[in-house]
Request: fold
Amino acid sequence: MSLFSRNSTRVSVNEAHRRTRSDGATAVLLDVRERAEWDAGRAPGAVFAPLSALAAGAALPQAAQGRPLVVICRSGNRSRKAAELLSSLGLDAVDVRGGMTAWADHGYPVVDARGNRGSVA
Reply:
């Protein structure tokens, strides 16, 4: 049984936050941006897996394996493609409308590679 409804492939940032950050959350926030974007700013606890690597057949990082996936990028375009790809492989995956830009706009934390306040690149 899937944690996510097959009819709902996109979620709001508030829903993404609830699914990945609330007490008892089991989903992982999977960031599919490229390295420079990831280093500039990411959600604390997110897992890095660039869409370019996933599209080339790379395995999911260990921390994301076997868990529902909430996929995020900068604006929502790449995350939609990644969620579709991951879903086609039989994984539970949804993407975040508005991406990291919406995440930051809603006041959720963004940190850089050193753990300091980051920015969405």
Observations:
- The domain at 10-105 is CATH 3.40.250.10 (Oxidized Rhodanese; domain 1).
- Residues 1-7 have pLDDT under 50 and may be disordered.
- The first strand starts at residue 10 and ends at 11.
- The beta strands are 10-11, 28-31, 47-48, 69-72, 93-96.
